[in-house]
Design a protein that fits this description.
Radius of gyration: 17 Å
Number of strands: 5
GO molecular function, one term: four-way junction helicase activity
InterPro entries: DNA_helicase_Holl-junc_RuvA_I, Hlx-hairpin-Hlx_DNA-bd_motif, NA-bd_OB-fold, RuvA, RuvA_2-like, RuvA_C, RuvA_C_sf
Keywords: Cytoplasm, DNA damage, DNA recombination, DNA repair, DNA-binding
Subcellular location: Cytoplasm
Pfam family, one: RuvA_C
CATH topology of the largest domain: DNA polymerase, domain 1
Helix content: 40-55%
Number of helices: 8
CATH superfamily of the largest domain: 5' to 3' exonuclease, C-terminal subdomain
Distance between the termini: 35 Å
Largest sheet: 5 strands, mixed, barrel
Length: 206
């Protein structure tokens, strides 16, 4: 397994970053690739998890080892795949997820995309009492809000803006935070990618 990659960020996409390590470009899937936007063309360290299946081999990237460790724990739960685990890790501070599991807060867990009551219960059954080693180190400021995850569909007549709202939802961003930046986005005329970048910049400031 590749522990980490250290190199320059040379491209940012909706679901991934490309990091140049000694003239080899690695495509690394991230919960929120735009967290790396300010580091474009700078040298960074990305902690990785290599996921292998019959039809694909993918690298998933994380800001911190603790994020990756929680991601690995979530993958061990029946019904949770890499996409679902990535959304959970990226959308909330890891310590809040751990606390929700330890306190059996199903209502908190079902706010994540793709997590229903059955899956939330399975997460608790499989992981409660097994995350003690994560608790002392999960004090990371990931600049992500602890809030609800239901994102309303904004009807602006602006297709690019609506596509951006859907993309933010897919990344696991939340209703309350998106509502705060929506008026600013609606006042601009941009491409879908530009709307996403602006929204993420503003949400990270908050």
């Amino acid at each position: 397994m590749i522990e980490c990659l250290k190199g320059k960020i040379i491209n940012i996409e909706r679901e991934a970053i490309v990091i140049d390590v000694r003239d080899v470009g690695y495509l690394v899937y991230c919960g929120n690739p735009y967290r790396y936007e300010e580091s474009i063309n700078e040298t960074v360290t990305v902690y990785t998890y290599q996921h292998v299946r019959e039809d694909a081999i993918r690298l998933y990237g994380f800001f911190h080892r603790e994020e990756r460790r929680l991601f690995e724990k979530l993958l061990s739960v029946s019904g949770i795949g890499p996409k679902g685990a990535l959304a959970i890790v990226a959308a909330e501070q890891p310590q809040l997820v751990v606390e929700a599991i330890e306190n059996e807060e199903e209502a908190f867990l079902i706010k994540f995309p793709g997590v229903g009551k059955k899956t939330a219960r399975q997460i608790i059954l499989d992981l409660k009492g097994k995350l003690e080693e994560l608790m002392p180190t999960l004090t990371l400021d990931l600049t992500q809000p602890h809030s609800e995850h239901s994102v309303p569909k904004q009807r602006s007549g602006n297709q690019e803006l609506e596509e951006a709202m859907e993309a933010l939802k897919a990344l696991g961003y939340v209703d309350r935070e998106i509502k705060k930046v929506y008026p600013q986005l609606a006042s601009e005329t941009m491409s879908t990618d530009q709307y996403i970048k602006l929204a993420l910049k503003e949400m990270l400031k908050r």
